[in-house]
Amino acid sequence: MKRVAASIITIGDELLIGQVVDTNSAWMAQELNKAGIWMKRRIAVGDVWNEIWNTLNEESEKSQIILITGGLGPTADDITKPLLCEYFGGKLVFDEGALNNVKNIFENILKRPMIERNLKQAEVPDVCTVIQNKRGTAPGMWFEKDGRIFVSMPGVPHEMKGMMTDYVLPELKKKFSLPFILHKTLLTAGIGESFLAEHIEKFETALPEHIKLAYLPNYGMVRLRLTATGDDKSILENELSQQFDTLKKLTAEWTAIDEDLSMSQAVAKLLKQRNQTVGTAESCTGGYIAHLITSEAGSSEYYKGSVVSYANETKEHILHVNPQTLETAGAVSQETVHQMVEGALLQLNTDYVVATSGIMGPDGGTTDKPVGTVWIAVGNRDKIIEQKFYFRFDRSRNIELTATNALNMLRKFISEH
Amino acid sequence: MKRVAASIITIGDELLIGQVVDTNSAWMAQELNKAGIWMKRRIAVGDVWNEIWNTLNEESEKSQIILITGGLGPTADDITKPLLCEYFGGKLVFDEGALNNVKNIFENILKRPMIERNLKQAEVPDVCTVIQNKRGTAPGMWFEKDGRIFVSMPGVPHEMKGMMTDYVLPELKKKFSLPFILHKTLLTAGIGESFLAEHIEKFETALPEHIKLAYLPNYGMVRLRLTATGDDKSILENELSQQFDTLKKLTAEWTAIDEDLSMSQAVAKLLKQRNQTVGTAESCTGGYIAHLITSEAGSSEYYKGSVVSYANETKEHILHVNPQTLETAGAVSQETVHQMVEGALLQLNTDYVVATSGIMGPDGGTTDKPVGTVWIAVGNRDKIIEQKFYFRFDRSRNIELTATNALNMLRKFISEH
Question: Which of A152, A269, A322, B264 lies at a C-alpha separation of 20 to 30 Å from B159?
Answer without folding.
Answer: B264
